[in-house]
Structures are given as C-alpha cells and as structure tokens.
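User: Structure please.
Assistant: Input sequence and predicted structure:
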Amino acid sequence: MLLRRKIFTAFLRLGLTSFGGPVAHLAYFHRDFVQRRKWLTEGEYAELVSLSQFLPGPGSSQVGAAIGLSQGGLAGAFAAWLGFTLPSAVLMLIFGLGLLRYQSALNSNWLHGIKIVTVAVVAQALWSMGLRFCRDQVCALIAITAAGLLLFVPLLGVQVAAMVGGAVVGLLFFQGKTESVVATSAKKAPEFGVPYGLCLCLFLVLLLIPVSVMSALGPNTELFARFYKTGALVFGGGHVVLPLLQTELVDNGLIQNDAFLAAYGAAQALPGPLFSIAACLGSMVVSSAPPWLSAVIALVGIFLPGLLLVVGVLPLWQRLRQVAAMNAAIKGINAAVVGILLAAFYQPVWTSAIHAPSDFAAAILMFMLLVFWRLPPWLVVILGASLGMVWS
C-alpha cells in the first residue's frame, strides 16, 4: 500500500506540472524517475520509451504505466495512470460542464481565438511529425495518399484502411531497411503470465466487437466503445486523436463541431496527457447519463486499450522489437498517420477557424510563437483567446 501511494503521489505531482505535450512528458519522467529517484536505469527507461513508440495509444501515459508496473505490479500501473491523468481530467470535465451551462459561449469571440490557436498547434504537430516520419519519397507518398483518401472518400473506417495500407507498403518497401527501435539493452522483462495474457485477450475482444453490437447494450456501452476504438487506433502521438474523435463524435452528431474544437484548444493549455480531452468531450455528449458519468466512461474508454497493451506486451517486448517486419510496418503506419493528421488539419481545423485574412495572419503569429519563440502552449492559448475577444 505504501509503495502504491508513493507511485501515485509521484505521478500526481507530474500530472499537475507536466506542460508541453508527450515529448516534454518523457523528459519530465526521465528527470524524475531515472536521474532523481533512480527507479530505472537509462537502458530500462529507453526500453519503455521504445515500447510506447511501437504501440497505439497515449505514449507518455503508457510509459508512465510501464514505470508503475515495473515498481508496483498491476496496482502500481493503475496508480501511475491515475495520478498522472487525474488533474487534467478534472479540469477538462469542469471546462466541459461550463460549456454545457453557458451554450452562448460557443459563439463567443474568445472561442474563435482558441480555434485559431488550434490551427497553429496542429500545424506544429504536423510539421514535427512530417520531419520525423516522412524523410523519404515512399513515406511522403504514403502520407499524401492517406490525406487524399480521407478528404475525397470521407467514409467510416477510412482512417483504419489508410493505416492498414501504410503497414502493407511499409512491409513491401522497408523490410530489412529499418533499424531496431532502440539499441540500448535493459534488464530482462517480467515473465509473461496469466494476467498479461488476459490483458491482451481483453484488448482484442473489446476492439473486435462492433459499435453497433455494443450500442444494443445501451448508450453508455456505445459511448465506451466509440472512445475505446479511438484509443486503440491512435498511432504517432496525441494529436492524431483529433481526426479519429471527430469522426466518432462530430460526424455522428454526438457533439457540436464548435464544442469539439473548443475542447481541443483548451486541452493545449493544461498539463498532463492530451487524451484527458475525453473527460470534456464525454461530458458534452448527447446522452441520458449524467455528464460526469459520461466523462468517466469516455476517459476509461480512451485510455484502456493503451494500458491493456502496455501491460500485456511489456513482457514480450524485447523479443518483438527484434522482428524486422514489425519495424517496417510501423514505419509505414507512422507515415499514414501524418496523412491522417494532414487531412484533419484542413477539415475541420482550418475550415472552421480561418475565414478572413486576419484569421490567417493570427494563425501564422500563433505558429511562430510556438515554433520559433517556443512559448508554452498554455500561454499561446491564453493569448489566442484574448486576441479573439478584442476582435468583436
């Protein structure tokens, strides 16, 4: 009990102070758990980071859960996730309840300012991911094809088809040409056992059950299924969750597009994982359940697949990462993910925010503040909202 409390407290402090997104979160984790607390060696930490890059889901949260798992077993993994997620989830829930109470705020000028900041934030993520995952002509072609497919064939399941296509192209072109995810050795991973196997089985069972079947069990189960399937398909970082959630919620009429973009913009100003946006979106979903219950269901749904995977795969990771086909497929998937984010950047982010030359100029300014002046995202969000208020 004392150890689990210690894990929870350590991650709660990080959940309150870790601004800057997944890359910054990993730096905070390294400083705290490798350099200061000595819970992990450099090699052990590098192994966990490589695992998070291989699996779908929220990368920094998966690393945190893996650290908790290595220190306190399954209870430690839960304590780490809860501590890191709780602050941002509570704040996002409060923001969602505020938008529900004051619907007129959706038409306010401050919201338009946040939308413009969202353009800059997604552009920054797109730029960074493009430089990282599209370094050659084949990857660039995968990304462009995926973006075109999503924009010109806006059907349900196209995102998944784009990622599957990227994996196939990766297997055809990159097998034998990719390096291992990490070359640093670490201590032997825990032995694969029944609890780990059950986590993998539960992940697959929940993923393969269609949403239509889950909806027959009630609206709460359908809500869980939509967020679960979104969390299970997010490769390449938290920003990729934007197009997947937009398809599941906005396109199906569960949330207004303005409210969706407001939640996404607000999430940039908060510490902790970006996936905590689920608490805000869940609270605003058209449902018969109380908003706080919908928020909890959405939050558990979007995080659960990534946590099940990291617990189930960690004991097998040292073997899996040596398979060249895995690395080749992941390279193709990551390129497709860039294309998915590119399509989302245009629709709905750009089309809903940029309506005049002044909007475009403001978006460029916000982008420069983020990329070149390196201001923290939370400060840029505040500046964008303030700028929007003076446009009235």
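Residues 2-389 form one domain.
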